[in-house]
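Exercise: predict the fold of this chain.
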Amino acid sequence: MVKVSIILPIYNVAPYLEEALDSILHQTLKEIEIIAVNDGSTDNSQEIIEKYQQKDERIIAFQQENQGQSVARNLALQHASGEYIYMMDSDDVLSSSDALQTCYDYAKKNEAEIVFFDREQFTEDHISFTVRVHSTQYAEENRKYEGEELLNKWLDTSSYNCVVWLLLINRQHLAGTGLSFYPGIIHEDELFTTELILNSSAIYCLKQSFVRHRIRSMSTVGRKFTRRNMDCYLTVADELLRFSRKPIIHKFLRYTLSKVFYTGHLILYKDKPAIFWRAMKSGYLKYIGLKSLLKFFLR
């Protein structure tokens, strides 16, 4: 029986892929499968995948033309058979050899739909640095949270971290929600994780760091903030309002869009009118605030 399916979308990460795979294959939890999807890499990522497949039959590999992380994850999810799902970035590493075992045991003990935990971050030259606000900082271990209650707590304490690689997710629960990743956008975790949290009623916190997250210049986080970032955030807002019109969604949009437009001063000035027009047409100005709008246009 497969206890954890590790979903691993791969795109041009050859310098880091072996380290990521080694950290998974050396786990004390042996009942795992690694579903690797090569999303049209142009480096030698595929050669590395094939080399590791020859070493370990627990690696299941797929190739596709470059369609983005959402499509790669959705493909992998279709083939996952584990009790729980862990979606790992292919340039990250698990922080200890017992990370999956510890997290799985805790999830099983509590019959958790989701377990969330912390991370460490490090740069390409392996210099670690502290994350200012931990996802678990304001939560309690061994307490069951409902999704809306937890999201409210995260928003009130400015500690919401939407990334899926901080979650261990029950596969049957995920299947029951009918959720998948929205294709063709970046910041897709903002949509998927928020909807998943709000669809869940047995969420547990584990105050340990199980993953070391690599910050690199060519990653989604490392690249310069552009019009595409803002367009994708607005798409997330569109989809969340289709999902629900509950007060928690409006609260989330106030939390998110004000920050997005504050950061939006970095985009090219010629792109700003179109972004502003889209936000205005969609009725999002009420979420953004005057301070963020002034920053957006004046700096």
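Check your answer against the key: The chain is about 45% helix and 20% strand.
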